[in-house]
Amino acid sequence: MSEDGVVKKFMYVNRKSPYGTIYALESLEVVLITAAFDQDVSLTFTDDGVYQLMKGQQTEGIGMKNFSSTYSALGDYEINKIFIDKESLEERGLSLSDLQELVWEDEDEDYAEKSSINLVSRAELSEIMNNQDVVLSF
After folding, report:
1. Please, which residues have CB within 8 angstroms of residue 115's CB and are 6 or more apart in sequence?
2. Are 54 and 22 in contact (CB under 8 A)?
3. Under DSSP, is residue 19 helix (H, G, I), strand (E, B) or coil?
4. Are the C-beta atoms of 120 and 131 separated by less than 8 Å?
5. Does 131 reside within a domain?
6. Are 12 and 136 in contact (CB under 8 A)?
7. How far is CA 42 from CA 35, 78, 83, 91, in A?
8. Range of the domain at 16
9. Residue 127: which H helix or E strand, with range?
């Protein structure tokens, strides 16, 4: 919680591909830290950021550690609002089936696993962003 005891709504906007820059890894680390402080955290993947959630990432050839499996832990941190920009997927010839499945456990429904991923249009995403207290872009 913030100093005044109010939970703030934080949205992290991921726009960069997962490798070649530090943005994707830094965003993931900040997201997990923010969630540890009981804030309301959501993530957006837009532009080349949609590649961050691709299944089967192979990084041996570029000499970088593959951190994509860490996204599967988001539900354990109660991060269950993940927004995927529909147009960004389409522009890159991708669909939801190309992305990792990210789930959370709903305590109110006997820990049933539910999808964290919400496919939204850019117009819907704009509305969602307008309802956040803090929006950080990576």
Report:
1. 101, 102, 103
2. no
3. coil
4. no
5. yes
6. yes
7. 9, 10, 8, 23
8. 9-137
9. helix 122-130
**Alpha-carbon Rg of the chain, whole angstroms?**
15
Looking at residue 3, its pLDDT comes to 62
Which amino acid does the sequence have at 88? S
- Domain harbouring 47, CATH code: 3.40.1260.10
Q: Which residues in 1-138 belong to E strands, given as ranges?
A: 9-14, 40-45, 82-85, 103-106, 112-115, 117-120, 134-137
51 belongs to a structural domain:
yes
CA 45 – CA 50 distance, rounded (Å): 5
User: Beta partners for 75?
Assistant: none
Instruction: For 4-133, list the strands marked E by DSSP.
Output: 9-14, 40-45, 82-85, 103-106, 112-115, 117-120
Comparing 61 with 25, which gets the higher pLDDT? 25
The predicted-structure confidence for 29-54, as pLDDT tens digits, reads as follows 999 999 988 899 999 999 999 999 99
Q: Which residue has the tokens 């820990």?
A: 111
